[in-house]
What we know:
two-stranded antiparallel sheet
Amino acid sequence: xxxxxxxxxxxxxxxxxxxxxxxxxxxxxxxxxxxxxxxxxxxxxxxxxxxxxxxxxxxxxxxxxxxxxxxxxxxxxxxxxxxxxxxxxxxxxxxxxxxxxxxxxxxxxxxxxxxxxxxxxxxxxxxxxxxxxxxxxxxxxx
Length: 142
């Protein structure tokens, strides 16, 4: 429920801040957006993800949770960094956007390729998203 609630909040912030007057997508006045009371509250509430233990979720709820986290990470990155304009921008976002969930750091790359795509490497990396020794690997096996 936390991931869904956070996603709803950020979706509202995001869509109210995207400039739709031109064909170029961009977040207008990012500095104002991140200083807004809504975004500050979102940031405070997103820290609660540190208390969520994804290992306790059944497989269906786990998938739904990480789909929400994936969408949340993308919207959050777009608000903070704007829309990627190249593959290099996307690769940067994929590797740097992250949340601490249940005391473990999950990057956008971990969530997309390690969990949602069931431990498949990304198109531009031959290596799996995380090592078999990492506890995150257990989630991709559920």
